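Fig. S4 source data, part A: sequence.
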Amino acid sequence: QVQLAESGGDLAQPGGSLRLSCAASGLILDDYEVGWFRQAPGKEREGISCLTDTDDQVRYTDSVKGRFTAFRQNSVNVVYLQMNDLQPEDTAVYYCATRCDLQDGDTYYSRFYGEEMTHWGKGTQVTVSA
C-alpha cells in the first residue's frame, strides 16, 4: 500500500523555522517529481515547491523563494521542506504529493503522472503566530 506521511508541523513564531518531512512507503520518491502544497483557511490549495527530475532542479513559488528549501534524502525515502523566516501568512496545512503544480515566476509548472500514480499525504498543520 502506497502511503505518504507528512510530519513536523507545529506552532512557530514569526521569523522562526520549521522542517517538514514527507516519508513514503510503497513507492520510491526518487522515481517521482515531488511537490509541496499548502492550504490556508478559506483559500485554495497552492503548490509551493517542486523537486523535479531535471538535474536536481527545485522550483518554488515566489512567496517562498529565498525562505523555503526542499530537498531529498533518498537513503531513507524522505523529502523535506526547510522553512525559514516564517510569517503569519505561511499558516496552512502542508501536503506532499507525487505531482507538481506551481507558479514559478512567469512559468506555470506542472507534472502529473496520472491518477493512479498520484499520491497525497494527509497533511501537517503549520501555524505561525506570536
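Fig. S4 source data, part B ends here. The two ends are 40 Å apart (CA to CA).
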